[in-house]
Amino acid sequence: DHRPHPESPPGQPPGDASAAAPGAPPAAPPSAPPDPPRGRLVRFAEWIVPTDNPSGTIYGLVAIAALLAAESGRHETYLETELSAVIAAGTYWLLHAYARLLGHRLTTNEHLSARSLAGALARDRALLRGASVPIAALVLASIVGASQATAVTVALWTAVGAIVAFELAAGIRAHASAGELALETGVGVVLGVAVLSLKVVLH
Length: 203
Known about the structure:
7 helices
């Protein structure tokens, strides 16, 4: 083929079919590759460990579990046991929010206002989220007909399982090694056993 090839733009190899025609808009830059999908364990860890005040959630969980362990057998009816746990959760929430707000006011000389009090209560609402775990287990056990002592035991073991799950999830989110995960899980188990020991020591 002796026909002359069309002239290519300066810097473009002759005969390159990818060259843009004169007057055509410049080609868009290649898009970045999509982020790799997160693993299921990581997504589960992000779901089980709340990002909004996680310490409040854990405090509420441990506090109500310790209360149930300490008061096990002291209430004659399910209603007394459940009301005791609900009232305690609400009291812990109010006191924790008030203590945080008062400490802030002592360091900043800020006046107490309805807005600041409402904000403190909203920030510490995670405490109620944690407290609801053993309370929900207690209520479900009563619904299925378990005895009161069995229901309290179920609530305590549910709290222990949640503590261990929180520790495990925290390690997964931090991309801990297998040894570090074992250590963190062990810490959760020790704390859970400490809560269970209250029931044994006090009764």
